[in-house]
């Protein structure tokens, strides 16, 4: 697919495919089988809000909103956004943290027909400048008062000389239309009528492996279905109160935290990532379900976990292998404990509700949709490996991307359109399921507590340093974050320190989480027989050094 530049309209549709590149006959099938709906995300939310007006839709440290309140408020803000001159299909960079107003802004953008572009509060000029130009962003939504960087000033700087960026929007200070609730609803409906449910609703960012960030188009019907299917496999109902601690404007946040609970009228309990502030809120709000990413695998050791465990029904772990101790500790109090393997590109695997503790601890389960296909192929081929053997996980189905925005990347897909995830996996036959276990990855990235660092991107930046002649970024093990970046560097003879490299990346305005956290200087970097950088050797070297330093 090469998507059109207009994100929210069907302008990118080519004969026989939807705007996001799904073959039209498959879109028809997904709809005929009741998977994809016919509404936009905003109208799906409105329908649920009408069905559950008095239930809490979202609770956060800043307050709470019922469905009726959230629905009405977001109608008004949508009218305010339209009043600024923003038009349906206009992409909006979203760079905010986990706050009540974030959820208000999310639905208001969608109701105004705008297309949120999910970025991280930690992103800086290097990332935002590229992303906002790649989508032709018209507005940049930021938050005032974040720790460290002044994101409002940053957004204004980004707009200078930008070809399309015209508005800086600030969370909590969004315009509201000067109209009553009925009129606001009427205007939102008018906007939504003009949007096709197969148009691109949201852009998510790929954890991807090339030197530039890749954007994933997520259409309305497809994206809501992803969330509905997830809520269904976990058995959520309107009585659930779903805790979410990791960045909410990430794919996992939007699907598991915002849309997922909202597909069934449940409540999102939105916290920040710090367990000491998250746990009291989760306990006070009697959370019934929670997703813990790898950075929160220590949550069951928290002094308040006993109290939380008394209300938890479902605990989902995601991001790294689950030890027996963690599995048992997470389930104290009787909660069902399972795993999620997900990606911004689409495919979600979840351990089925009725499956054994063995399956739920040792595998990430099965795809969440009956029309999902997960195949394990010998890397770089179209050949399936035998059950039990390790190969590359390749996926196709009703909510997995068919192409990146504006990029032709045939190597990322099989001939029949399955996405090559770059993750290594194996099929395990357990409890009558073809459950999938994660066995590593072939893509060259570092998973730092759930944030993906693209090695090639950082290496190219390091090579721009005047004294660096060779650079390789490899993962070094970290007990809390899982992995951190270690740079192996050869120079022109002038030694460089970690501080030098960090100053260089600061000057290039690169997000801090991507910075190497250790440097290993070498006269020349190790290479394989065919002359490629030997990252296997460097990864083993740093792991050995770290374990030697520990003893
Ligand atoms: P993202 O698109 O940022 O959500 O990252 C998706 C990637 O995160 C996957 O392709 C995997 O490499 C990794 N990932 C997601 N879930 C898990 C999991 N449960 N275990 C190990 N790795 C995971």
Ligands, deduplicated: adenosine monophosphate
Main-sheet strand order equals 2-1-10-9-11-12-13-14-15
Distance between the termini: 52 Å
CATH level-two architecture of the largest domain: 3-Layer(aba) Sandwich
Descriptive account of the structure:
The N and C termini lie far apart (about 50 Å). A hairpin with a 2-residue loop joins strand 18 and strand 19 (about 435-440). The longest helix is centred in the N-terminal third of the chain and has 17 residues, at about 65-85. A 9-stranded mixed beta sheet has the order 2-1-10-9-11-12-13-14-15, sandwiched between helices. It has a 4-stranded parallel beta sheet with strand order 4-3-5-6, with helices on both faces. It folds into 3 domains: about 1-55 and about 65-225, Rossmann fold, CATH 3.40.50.980; about 345-445, Luciferase, domain 3 (Roll), CATH 2.30.38.10; about 445-550, GMP Synthetase, Chain A, domain 3 (2-Layer Sandwich), CATH 3.30.300.30. It is α/β, with parallel strands linked by helices. The chain contains 16 helices and 24 strands. The radius of gyration is 23 Å and the shape is globular. The protein has helices at about 25-30, 40-50, 65-85, 100-110, 125-135, 150-160, 180-195, 220-235, 250-265, 275-285, 305-310, 325-330, 355-360, 455-465, 500-505, 535-550; strands at about 55-60, 65, 90-95, 115-120, 140, 165-170, 200-205, 215-220, 240-245, 265-270, 290-295, 315-320, 335-345, 345-350, 365, 375, 390-395, 420-430, 435-440, 445-450, 450-455, 470-480, 480-490, 520. About 30% of the residues lie in helices and about 25% in strands. Bound molecules: adenosine monophosphate. Adenosine monophosphate binds near residues 423 and 441.
